[in-house]
Amino acid sequence: MATDSQGDKIEKYDLKLKSKPKDGVILQLHHTIRGSNGESKRIRFSIGTFEDTHNKLACVDNVGNVFILDFTDLQFWKLKSLGPCTALHFVPYDLDILVVANTKRFEIKFVDIESTKVTLTLKGHTAPIKHISFSNNKINNMLTASSVEAILWELKNYTKYFTLNTYPGAQIQQILFTPAGDYLVACFQNDTIQIWKHETMKSVKQIIPSELKHLKSVAFTMNGRAMAMSGLAPLLILFSMDTWKALKSIDLLKYNISGVQQISFIPQMFDGGSNKLLALLSSDCFLHFFDIESLKIIHTIHPESSGIRKFVVSPSGKYFLCILQQGEVNIYNTSYVMDYVKTPLDMATRNVLPCTSGSHKCVEHSPKRVEVQQRMKICMDSARLRRILMQYGEYPDKFRSIIWRSLLVTPRNKTAYSVLVDKGIHPAYKDIEKQFTIHSSITLKNLKRLLSCLAHWCPLFGVMKFLPGFVFPFVKVLQKDPLLLFESVATILFNQCQLWFEYAPFPPISVLAMIENILAEHDQQLLDHFCNLGVTSQTYALKILETAFSEVLTCSEWLILWDHILSNEPAFILMAVVSYNIVQKNALRRLQNQEQIENFFHMQNPINKKTFLKKIYVLLNDTSEDIHPRRFFKSFMALDKGTCYQQFTGYPKATICLKLAKKTRRKAQTANNYTLRELTTKSQEEEINNRHIVENNSTESDISSEKDLNENNNVINSTKSNKKNNQSNGDHTSAVKKELIDEILNSTVKHSHKCKRKSHNKKSKKDYIDSKDSTSPKSSKKTSERNHNLEKEVEKLIHSYSSSDRSEE
Fold first, then answer.
1. Is the model's pTM score more than 0.70?
2. Which residues does 441 contact at the CB level (< 8 Å), separation at least 6?
3. Where in this protein does the record put region Disordered (predicted)?
4. Any domain includes 724
């Protein structure tokens, strides 16, 4: 192993792509140089590789010049020559690094495509390297292979951990990982296929297709369930990786194909990974597109200038390239090719407005758009999307916003949304940049607009302190479509955030009780550890919920989790909180005080996302029905389509009084900056005073007053396992008022589980269920009259607050 720190300054040039060409060729590459004698000399291209995430392509000519093409920024540049190269591949976890295998001492070089620096060199091969690939399930595993040996590299330590040596007559024709990374498959020149288990590198299967001679190439569907085999004999075999049996044997002579040099599946949008389009490079250098379901050749590519020597398909199937025998490279956009295939021959004679070179808008595009929208609507069926999710573990980044829109059934109420936007920035979020450090002015503007629309839609969202942190990650993902952003967040607040605001602005006692009960059922030891340290569900659950998991997960992990949350029932998000705690159990049990645990839930911690997601589904399916959140949650409810949005009513009216109290105190004492706790204390004192005035004026007895007070305390303490307050007759008014204020401010689901924890679990479950039952309308007539008087007082406050808002505007 060696490193090279030298790098050359690169110069980038503009790249121009063809706009929807007939044959699908968006770009043709050729490298011509002028010799010393003035004659032009063409250097042939030999290999190429795609990188789909940033839409890049790397191509190498026979001299060793490496060209990088960026289809996003429409630029290209040349790296310094590394000598003749035999294989290329982008590093999947560091997309600015290109792995290059050259013929000089058969070295493998890691090159930074932005700085041209060679950051790493690996040695170990004894013959030219023909194949480079990376495992999908172990990101630090790389496979390189020549015809005589294959080496598995562990890139954490830059060491070999497995070497496969061959013997003459059985040299490697092709070797690669299966898409999931579970198996390693090698195709040998003696017409055998060997399959190893990646974890143990033990041989699990050997395939010897007796009918197929001169085996040349194998290919896998994206889901890894089917393998295609072909060779110089006119035969194509489709093999099941699930049953280890052949599915089909197709005679290619029926299609005038005498033999095949190379095959590769072409992924298509929403095919679920079970690709049905197979590209075959025939012996006569034609590229055929073969539909393995209908058993038809739907298209053939045969450039007029030269035959095709090799082709490469991008991982997502968006592009493919053909390296011609004369050395040029034709780069195709797959969708353009397929559009051309689906267009009948007589479409060229239909009556449409002509397109000129200066105008790209044609009448013929509009019917295609309608057709595409109809097809996408069918493909966006929620059940089909869930199957894709369970198969791949996530939705593709390119289509995530479209898929989320479909899952959330957003109505696209442009009129209703514009009314909210026209109200301007809400006073509560006018100076939000002082609370958050947001470097992007565009992101800040979108965040302000979203929060203001939410606050105009429902006054509750103008007083919830955690809301900016909750919605911020959604702003980052969906800010290109503000309407979709608002409707998505509003739908999430309706569904995934059920019962969050029933005690607003105080913690959601019911939700935290559900989480605690689930944790008690599935991991009592972890709950005991929390209780021994005095850690409540406000720390290990509420902190995660209020930031929508954005503080504890990386960006990619967050996107994948919300793919699953939005694809499942509303209770899924609570199971995700419990799963995160259980999966991080080993790390949490090593923390020995409350401060350490609080810090743990405010930082990104390494997590196995597959284990994390798998545990969520286990909890979702194996949790007892009596404590399962779906028992208390309503089913999914989408926003109404129309000229206005339905009201959000899942919160107590008295919550708005806090905002009024906060506003009036700012006017009265501008010099004093009250904390949220002080404002809350003062507003609750006013509310309790009003309640006692009503009680003194009524004809109720002390007994009914005591009963009502005890009922309120029972609701507040419904999730506390070992606390039961027996209130006195209410003669000492000041003591009762002080105790009630303390109870409200401290109703944060504190747990005293230091003893009798098993009995606590039974009590907490029962108490929570009883508290939900106690909300049924069984109170006495006198209690109803008193509550009616309290509501009148609150309505007066709301009316006066609304009037003051209008006067300020």
1. no
2. none
3. 688-732, 750-809
4. no
